[in-house]
Amino acid sequence: MLEKNKTALLVIDMQNDNISAGGKSEGTGAVEHAQKQKIVPHISQLISAAHENNILVIHNQFVVKNDGKAIGSNAPIFINMKNNQSAFSGTWGAKTVDGIDIAPEDFVLQRDRMSAFHGTELNTILKNLDIDTIIITGVWTNMAVEHTARDGADYGYKVIVVPDATATINDEWQSAAMNYAMNNVATKILTEEIIKEL
């Protein structure tokens, strides 16, 4: 049972370069997988339900600043984002995808690492608002979503991941994240079930 005043909805990396046609990830399978998962309509439904029930909504976005000068070269993902100019600050690619609305009362946090907790005020906001449960949605399931779920568990939150409101580049990667790592750190609940409970 979700306690509405102790629950927050996290919307991770729903940006054009990640899942929109014409974005930097086009050609990886990410656009097609997001469409197959129907994550834009599913997340939109969850956002609407959260607003209707006075549940905190936090949009967390990966944004590369200053042309990637400080993103680092320690990991392939950072090198690729810099070389591809993916999610560069101020570009169309870094903007929120069509169909995901950000309300004035929502929080929007930016970061340049995988976990939504890393380098943001996320933990401070959740603690100050007495939140103990986070519902995680967004992309990519095996990267930012998984990193955030792991950190959320380590920070002491009850973590819910929504399988049909997350996507990556294909079903194999989705399954690897959802059916292995998530079993140890999160509860999996579908969009329709969460909305019914709210």
Question: Could you name the key traits of this structure?
Answer:
198 residues, alpha/beta, Rossmann fold, six-stranded parallel β-sheet, 8 helices, globular, Isochorismatase-like_sf, hydrolase, Isochorismatase-like_hydrls, hydrolase activity, Isochorismatase-like_dom
Verbal overview:
Strand 4, helix 6 (141-154) and strand 5 (158-167) form a beta-alpha-beta unit. The model has no long low-confidence stretch (mean pLDDT 96). This protein has one domain: Isochorismatase-like (Rossmann fold, 3-Layer(aba) Sandwich), CATH 3.40.50.850. The chain has 8 helices and 6 strands. Helix 3 packs parallel to helix 8 and helix 6 runs parallel beside helix 7. With 198 residues, the protein is an alpha/beta fold.
Quick rundown:
By secondary structure, the chain is α/β, with parallel strands linked by helices. It is built from 8 helices and 6 strands, in the order βαααβαβαβαβαβα. It has a 6-stranded parallel β-sheet with strand order 3-2-1-4-5-6, with helices on both faces.
